[in-house]
Design goal:
Helices cover about 45% and strands about 15% of the residues. It has helices at about 5, 35-45, 125, 130-140, 145-155, 165-175, 185-195, 195-215, 220-240, 245-255, 260-270, and strands spanning about 15-20, 30-35, 50, 55-60, 70-75, 85-90, 105, 115. A hairpin with a 6-residue loop joins β5 and β6. The longest helix is centred in the last third of the chain and has 21 residues, at about 195-215.
Length: about 270
């Protein structure tokens, strides 16, 4: 067993809670469990691996949905009994209900729970019906997770007619955070620091994408994908600064779709 693992204080069942936090925004996405093997594999592969208590097996995040978590760093708390993962969530969805975060319910002043986060991707597009049924059955075995089971069961009979525009959803969330307190989210802190800081971040992420592209291979493009996603994210923050929705960019790309790049370039030259 690796020496670094001996520092970790696993409980009497050989488990430790692991918190997954979004690399770009700092938002808590989910909480799961790890055993020694899961933590060791996570450190080795830089992709999140958890321990499923209901199935009694290792659970590679995204093995069914495709929404893997790229791990940027791993931290241990002062008592050495909680793991914090800083991750990039592929697909932008961490929760099995199709939401960005598992923490989508907020306690109202009248002491009732209210759902305050939108479904970004319908669960039936992430999982097969069999998987959804298994998830529902699994969660019904844990009283504190019964609400999740209800969402999973409902998802089996609620099929979306069209896919959700993830870019637009993300743009809306970013736009909303312009009004938030600077210490409440990463995006709000960028807006508070101003345009130059946002542009600086785009430059940093673009450089990291270039480096990832130089190291990428046709069968190994994971780092390139994640770095490119960081560029896209910060571009959305920059567009939000000017109140430009993602759809405006999509519309411009659509306008160019059947237009020769050479013709487009010549037209620009003629206008200058």
């Amino acid at each position: 067993m690796s020496d670094w693992l001996s520092t970790v204080q696993f409980d009497e069942h050989g488990l430790i809670p692991a918190i997954a936090q979004d690399h770009a925004t700092g938002r808590v996405l989910m909480v799961a469990w790890m055993n020694r093997a899961a933590l060791e594999q996570t450190a080795k592969t830089r992709k999140a691996v958890y321990w499923s208590r209901s199935r009694q097996k290792l659970w590679h995040k995204g093995e069914e949905s495709g929404n893997v978590q790229q791990v940027h760093n791993i931290r241990l708390d002062c008592d050495a009994d909680i793991i914090l993962l800083n991750v990039t969530q592929q697909g932008g969805v961490a929760c099995h209900t199709g939401r960005e975060s598992c923490f989508y319910q907020e306690l109202n002043t009248d002491l009732t729970w209210q759902t305050v986060e939108p479904v970004l991707v319908e669960p039936d597009t992430l999982y097969s019906a069999a998987t959804l049924a298994a998830n529902a059955s699994k969660h019904l075995n844990h009283d504190k997770e019964q609400d999740h089971a209800q969402h999973a069961a409902q998802a089996m009979v609620s099929i979306a007619a069209t896919p959700v525009d993830v870019l637009q959803q993300l743009g809306d969330i970013i736009q909303a955070r312009k009004q938030a307190a600077p210490d409440s989210s990463y995006v709000a802190s960028l807006y508070d620091k101003g345009l130059n800081k946002i542009l600086e971040k785009i430059g940093e992420e673009a450089t990291e994408t270039i480096l990832a592209a130089k190291d990428a291979q046709p069968d190994n493009t994971g780092d390139l994908v994640y770095e490119a996603a960081d560029v896209w994210f910060h571009m959305l923050v920059m567009l939000g600064y000017f109140n430009v929705p993602p759809q405006a960019i999509l519309d411009e790309l659509g306008r160019r779709f059947n237009l020769s790049g050479l013709v487009e370039k010549a037209a620009r030259a003629g206008q200058s």
